[in-house]
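Lab channel / #folding
Pinned by the channel admin:
"Please post every new chain as: sequence first, then the structure tokens as a reply. Keep commentary short and put observations after the output so the thread stays searchable."

First post following the new format, from NK:
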Amino acid sequence: MQIGQKDLLWNYTATSMRILSGIVVLPVTLRMLPPEEMGIWSIFLSLMTITSLLDFGFSNSFSRNVTYIYSGVKELKAKGYSVIESLDVDYGLLKSLLSAMKRYYAIVALAFLIIFLAGSPFYISSVLEQYGGDKQTIWIAWFIFGGLLTYELYTYYYSSILIGRGQIKRNMQIIVFSQSVRIVVTLVFLFAGLGIISLVLGLFISNIINRTLARRIFYNKETKAGLAKAIATQGWDMIKILAPNSLKIGFTSLSYFLRNQSIVLIAPFYLSLPQIAEFGISKQLVSVIYTLGLTWYFTYYSQTAQYRVREDTKGVKRLYIKGNLNLIIMFIAAGSVLLIFGSDVLLFIKSKTSLLCNEYLFLMLLFSFLEARHVMANGTLIAKNEVPFFKADIISGVCAILVLLLMFNFTSLGVLSLILATGLTLCAYMNWKIPATLAKEIKLTLKDYKTVVLSYFKK
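Reply from TO:
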């Protein structure tokens, strides 16, 4: 498995395309859809965020174990990994894993569909009580959106198997193409007067294209031939093998949701809507820098997992240190641009919402950088098929909510509470403990940093 500069370039391109799709579509949407309809669309997007939690960490485990199989592993374990005997792909093991993935996501998608259909008459009816527009259009959009989410869940693993196989460039090319289609389709339907249905159809068509291309690329002639001759032997036992770590990662994702999403749901009880809007747009821009900062590391993550099972500690160190370097460079460069020019850009485009003050932005950038560092360290630890800090992650999520409520009720910090609650909670343990644990495990030294840094800048 070789991941190179082209994979990295396409990953940055795909990430930028996700951002661009919002930049291009959002102004047109804000101009053509009434505020009530935009509010309903926000509910749609919130549902999409919640449904992604239903994966509960299995996509991460599936992707990692696909990497193990393509690295030559002949047996998958609930914890750790088996010794590599040869570099040949065990197609029987791969077929068992793929069969387990299909069954798992079919059950998840069916469960979601049943809950969605049963709850929709009650939920949407209450949402539309004060809606003055065409309610039939909202109902149509809602059920199309439910079909989209069901299809998304059923095919959730398609990207995972591509990434696990190391086909980063192909996966990113698919994302770029499907996002381009989404922009075009959404704009065409918006100008045709379909309203909120335009946004749903743009997502739906884009998603179908994404999943179809991912399936075709993974199942090439070699893979089809290997799987045709192979016999799937483990069946449901594969789910039992993957479940322990998957559930731990799922709880970690839930903790991230508590720290970063639920605090915004609590905020309206204590802050004004303009304050929440300022925090929201500032958070979005900092999140873009966070995502771009981690792009390099996650481009090479499959290779990190491969180095793990081959016990190539030098390779693990090299990728981890380079990931940190790229993170630092991105936060310094992009963070400086945000602090210096961010407010002026919003004034130029005549935005009705402004950014938080630079002092608050700097704190958000600092806490986001520290979180990104521990996310990288945690990912490198998980690459050996162990999830050591999931309990601490859950505790940090709960503590962030408790600290936020204490700050809201017993201080006058206002919007600063949203920044400090999560930031200080993570600084208390996760931000330093996880990187320190990894450094101790792989025996990371200053000499390692010096060697990689010199070669990095020389290259």
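NK: Residues 91-127 form the longest helix (37 residues).
TO: also worth noting, The mean pLDDT is 81.
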